Amino acid sequence: MQPFMKPVSDLFPILSEPRNIVITFHQKPDGDAMGSGLGLYNFLIQFGHQVTVVSPTNWASFLSWMPGAPKVLDFEMQNAKAITALNNANWLFCLDFNTLSRVKKMEAVVEKLACTKILIDHHQQPQTEAFDFGISNTGKSSTAEMVYDFIIASGHDAMINKEIAECLYAGVMTDTGSFRFKSTTADVHKMVARLKETQMDHSQVHENLFDNFQEGRFRFFGHVLLNCMQVFYEYNTALIVIPQKDLIKFNVKTGDTEGLVNFPLSIKGIKLAAVIIDRGDERKSSFRSKGGFDVNTFARTYFNGGGHFNAAGGKNAEPLEEVVAKFKKAIEDNKIALNEVI
Ligand code: 5GP
Ligand code: MN
Question: Domain boundary residue among 181, 210, 239?
């Protein structure tokens, strides 16, 4: 391991030498984690590498249409197979996370691996000492965009096919809020233009990701917005608290709560939106902000988490009521900053 990661460009001259490669990403992968991982998978298999994608946990069913997804191993459910793949790996690509704790139970296994570890990520404060090679760029819209940059910089533009395009488009689209956030640069649109040259059907990708839910998810959202949301106008903040019994009652599945945190941000004047969910083994929080309020620091300071300036998350071991009390204290501590936000 190196104190500083060597540049990924050092790998380009040896990219086509056959290897065992494992690609992983953060637990409970979102569209960018799965999309960047499978985009890279569909690129690397073209060289004849033995490539295995390992997810630290299960994932939302609306990600399972992606090319290559049926072959992804769930570390928790297919543990022996996943460990064999990890132990045999020459290279391990770690995508869309900054600290090893983001791979949950896989962390202990990954730490012990002697293989070459490569980070490609856009989160703040990366744990660079844990990786041999890597690129961390918080200015990038998504890890999918960084995988695209990796392919282009390696000189293999011609290998971008429809499969890669669908995965990378899904990643960049989800992480930019459908090309809405400020991170959507001219480069992002140029990348999408290039992906469209593969005949990728972007409308179908949107449909696969956003129009694939069960009715129960919307009934659950209705319940939550009506009964579980508090608005603190003096702090320009809205909070949704979901007890575990509601997850059980509405049969909430992995991925069903994705996007919920964005709803309160559409209330006029709200600059900070939060969701705290009691998942049983931990209390998971999600934070989103508009403008100048830094939720990465907020999540790190109070909720053992992190992420980006305007989107972050965390987890706590304390009971739900204590985490909620902590949140209320945290917004009081940040009252001035929350009121300063333009
Ligand atoms: P979400 O709220 O969608 O779970 O996460 C928002 C962002 O914060 C994502 O970029 C995610 O990777 C990051 N994030 C979420 N939870 C955690 C956490 O517990 N620790 C860290 N370091 N980042 C997190
Ligand atoms: Mn991402």
Answer: 210
Q: Give 93 Cα–ligand 2 centroid separation in angstroms.
A: 15
Q: Could you tell me if 185 and 225 lie in one domain?
A: no
Q: CA-CA-CA-CA torsion for 39, 40, 43, 47, nearest 10 degrees?
A: -160
71 neighbors 77 (Cβ within 8 angstroms) = no
Ligand 1 centroid to residue 313 C-alpha, Å: 4
> Of 210, 234, 254, which one is at a domain's C-terminal end?
210
Residue 155 alpha carbon to ligand 1 centre in Å: 32
**How far is Cα 320 from Cα 157, in angstroms, rounded to an integer?**
49
Residues 5 and 98: their CA atoms lie apart, in Å, by: 13
Do residue 183 and residue 274 come from a single domain?
A: no
CA of residue 63 to ligand 2 center, whole Å: 14
Helix (H) or strand (E) run with residue 175 in it: helix 162-175
Q: Whose CA is nearest to atom 13 of ligand 1?
A: 307
Q: How many domains does the chain have?
A: 2
Give the predicted TM-score (pTM) of the model.
0.94
The phi, psi pair for 52, rounded to 5°, reads: -125, 130
27 residue type, one letter: Q
pLDDT digits (tens, 9 = 90+) for 22-68: 999 999 999 999 999 999 999 999 999 999 999 999 999 999 999 99
Both 199 and 226 in one domain: the answer is no
Nearest CA to ligand 1 atom 19: 314
- Same domain assignment for residues 199 and 306: no
Q: Is residue 204 part of a domain?
A: yes
* Confidence at residue 1, expressed as pLDDT on a 0 to 100 scale: 43
List the domain range (segments joined by +) for residue 317. Answer: 215-340
Instruction: Answer yes or no: do 76 and 137 share one domain.
Output: yes
Rounded to an integer, what distance in angstroms lies between the CA atom of residue 105 and that of residue 333?
A: 33
Whether 19 maps to a domain, the answer reads yes
The string of pLDDT tens digits covering residues 242-279 is 999 999 999 999 899 999 999 999 999 999 999 999 99
Whose tokens are 């041999």? That residue is 132
Provide residues with CB under 6 Å of ligand 1.
26, 99, 102, 123, 286, 305-308, 311-315
Domain containing residue 265: CATH number:
3.10.310.30
Domain identity same for 78 and 202: yes
Identify which ligand lies nearest to the alpha carbon of 146. 2
